[in-house]
Amino acid sequence: GAGVSQTPSNKVTEKGKYVELRCDPISGHTALYWYRQSLGQGPEFLIYFQGTGAADDSGLPNDRFFAVRPEGSVSTLKIQRTERGDSAVYLCASSLGGGGRITGELFFGEGSRLTVL
Amino acid sequence: GEDVEQSLFLSVREGDSSVINCTYTDSSSTYLYWYKQEPGAGLQLLTYIFSNMDMKQDQRLTVLLNKKDKHLSLRIADTQTGDSAIYFCAESEANFGNEKLTFGTGTRLTIIP
């Protein structure tokens, strides 16, 4: 499709389990972002990729969270030893990245809703 | 760190104007944005304003920026039922190539028929 695609749309898991969330950005977008949105809150920045490398991972809450983008396109957010507090909607966004157009024009996916029981 | 604040709820009669307000703390904000989130859909960029501007108009949308008070507002003229959504204010320092945004908590706009 033409937009940012995220899978799964819903994931229910048990405390302590490992989870992977996938993001397929818009073709040609070099920048990819992960955000987390808790109930009643705005999205919070987690990590930003420019190409294959994580250019800014300052938003990752702890070392249980990790993200990769090995070929500069699809990205996977990995959460180890999940906790109930990890329950949220995880949003992925992509952009063309860098000059020549307005900044901040992120194109968001519909998100992956994670529930940790 | 950066902080962006908004009121949580706004109810407006259909056909009236809606005004959604936002305050931010980061004086180095370069761009300020309004995003719209509808149920079952991803966040969508509505409009943006560069920090050296004080007003921007785009069809039914008017953005006002008071940089001295760090206050941003979004006015929607002739509000329609399709405008029902959550509206997020966001800011960035726009480090070249890094469009990392700080979002507010969102304002849920409800249209009264």
Describe the structure.
The complex is a heterodimer of chains A (117) and B (113). By secondary structure, chain A is mainly beta. Chain A contains no helices and eleven strands. In chain A, strands 2, 4, 5, 6, 9, 10 and 11 form a seven-stranded mixed beta sheet that branches. The model of chain A has no long low-confidence stretch (mean pLDDT 91). Chain B has 113 residues and is mainly β. Chain B is built from no helices and eleven strands. In chain B, the strands form two sheets. In chain B, strands 2, 4, 5, 9, 10 and 11 form a six-stranded mixed beta sheet that branches. In chain B, strand 7 and strand 8 form a beta hairpin. The N and C termini of chain B lie far apart (40 Å). The model of chain B has no long low-confidence stretch (mean pLDDT 90). Classes of the chains: A mainly beta (117), B mainly beta (113). Chain A binds chain B through residues 3-4, 31, 33, 35, 40-45, 48, 50, 55-56, 91, 93, 95, 97-99, 102-111, and chain B through 4, 8, 30-31, 33, 40-45, 48, 88, 90, 92, 94, 96-106.
